[in-house]
Write the structure tokens for this entry.
Amino acid sequence: MALYEKHGKDDATSFRSFLGDSMPFYREKSYETDLVQELSKKTASQRIYAPEMQPMRQPNPSLLAVHNCLGKCVFFPASKPRRLGMSSTQVESGRKALFFSPSLSKEEWKIRRGGLVVGGKCIDFLVMGKPDTLFEGRWTLCSLGNAQFYELECLFNKPLLELLATVKSNALFFNYPGVGESEGNPSRESIIQAYRSFLRLLEQSKQEIGVKEILLYGHSIGAAVQAEALQSWPFDPDIAYLAIKSRTFSCLSQMAKKRTNRWGSRLISLLEWELETALRSKYLQVPEIILQTASVPSYREICNQKEIVDDTVISQKASLAYALLQNQAWEAQKSLIGIPEKHNAPLSDVAYLACEIARYLGSA
């Protein structure tokens, strides 16, 4: 079944077609040539039209411009790479380098770039898989931090790729609206709708590509985006889900309050930018693993708020795990894992996390 928005029906491409109809995309004779060309283009030429989604409530029209400005300048600095000390071509160079990456080729990762059209805006994404996993049913939807790009994460975050390989999962990475080559602005509504569109894409492709399990991996603000996107989500009973939240906050205003006193918190409320990670986590209907920086020498489950520490970005009391330990009346099974890494440090114990995943989903 082709997935499309009303305005794009004639050009619609199914996710199965994107991965290859008669044969997997990586077996096509022109795979390497096509990939080099695709990674060199500014915008993705392979496009899928997202399934129609229920519209979200927009911010007050009189505040929309300021709302979007806050998203660009504060919450998603990746939309302005120079704010991160990066050149305007650094991300583009990273994308081109994916084809030549030794870590990708050595581990036999096969990649394909595409664009998912959501609300008329093309959201840049990358699919990663291996010949023995691509149609075996396990997928990971990755939502990144506010200063991250999928191009650079796939190029340099070796522990994350190792985790995907260990649990035998394919992956779908995307850049938020307004980040990298994704069109639009990083508004609260647009980032959540983009996430939901990718999740729905995987769910509606379960017959075509055999999706059986979906891991939802979010880091930092990406975990908060995941939490809001999953609010009241109609999970497919035929698919097993597992949410993983890495080093995130209880709510955006709480984190801002700790860093700016009260004015940041009030601004978030006024401009309708709140992300209530702890509240959404409490009522989440699928199992969840939460990774939080703690005073531990190695990965282990934590049950005491005092073990949680400041991770250089999120303070102890603003963290998700701290809020959940304050009131443990959550609805689905959770594992709260203390890790020694600071906020953006790579995961150091992939084997431990892989075992936790297997505990919930079993071995792939």
Q: What stands out?
A: The first strand starts at residue 47 and ends at 49.
